[in-house]
């Protein structure tokens, strides 16, 4: 934690001439961009895997239909098919999983009152009027929705809602373009219908985590929206089922 806190402080010092009192917030955004840039090769690999899965969809449907009365044989046949084609049904999950340590580290850093036995000075840093260690409920208690800190959260909510709306419309188009598969497991259709709404859940997350962690989520979500629009532009149906974060 001390090493990570020092990294954030050093980045903030470099950015201070440009961003003044919001330099630490800018450092968090830059740190998030570094994380996403490091994970980007895996995102590209995941996109290739998702496209391979889309090409395998007719064969997967045939296997499910053939072994619909024997779940164990069906599962074995599907794994053999994926192994033969060097694909994976979970190919889109790895980039999201690798980001979790960075998010939880940032969350813990701005939730801890002390680091290495010393008071956590980062909690006093701000994005304009909003302390990075506080939450939306704190902003509401200190000036209300339109107060200084509340206005910062309103700006974040507007940005998240815009990205979520973009993802919602894009995912709806992708799912509409995707062919219906025979032998789809029970409950999958309902989950697929709910998929376009998942992006809006980010609004809840931003509201309940410390502002520093919220900045990470907003930056990462915006990056993901742009990245998926580029990586899946030639294969929309494959991109519909990727993680929105």
From TrEMBL:
<feature type="transmembrane region" description="Helical">
    <location>
        <begin position="145"/>
        <end position="166"/>
    </location>
</feature>
<keyword id="KW-0812">Transmembrane</keyword>
<protein>
    <recommendedName>
        <fullName>Membrane protein insertase YidC</fullName>
    </recommendedName>
</protein>
<keyword id="KW-0653">Protein transport</keyword>
<dbReference type="Pfam" id="PF02096">
    <property type="entry name" value="60KD_IMP"/>
</dbReference>
<keyword id="KW-0813">Transport</keyword>
<feature type="transmembrane region" description="Helical">
    <location>
        <begin position="197"/>
        <end position="218"/>
    </location>
</feature>
<feature type="transmembrane region" description="Helical">
    <location>
        <begin position="89"/>
        <end position="110"/>
    </location>
</feature>
<keyword id="KW-1003">Cell membrane</keyword>
<comment type="function">
    <text>Required for the insertion and/or proper folding and/or complex formation of integral membrane proteins into the membrane. Involved in integration of membrane proteins that insert both dependently and independently of the Sec translocase complex, as well as at least some lipoproteins. Aids folding of multispanning membrane proteins.</text>
</comment>
<comment type="subunit">
    <text>Interacts with the Sec translocase complex via SecD. Specifically interacts with transmembrane segments of nascent integral membrane proteins during membrane integration.</text>
</comment>
<feature type="domain" description="Membrane insertase YidC/Oxa/ALB C-terminal">
    <location>
        <begin position="26"/>
        <end position="232"/>
    </location>
</feature>
<keyword id="KW-1133">Transmembrane helix</keyword>
<dbReference type="InterPro" id="IPR047196">
    <property type="entry name" value="YidC_ALB_C"/>
</dbReference>
<keyword id="KW-0143">Chaperone</keyword>
<comment type="similarity">
    <text>Belongs to the OXA1/ALB3/YidC family. Type 1 subfamily.</text>
</comment>
<dbReference type="InterPro" id="IPR028055">
    <property type="entry name" value="YidC/Oxa/ALB_C"/>
</dbReference>
<feature type="transmembrane region" description="Helical">
    <location>
        <begin position="20"/>
        <end position="39"/>
    </location>
</feature>
<keyword id="KW-0472">Membrane</keyword>
<dbReference type="InterPro" id="IPR001708">
    <property type="entry name" value="YidC/ALB3/OXA1/COX18"/>
</dbReference>
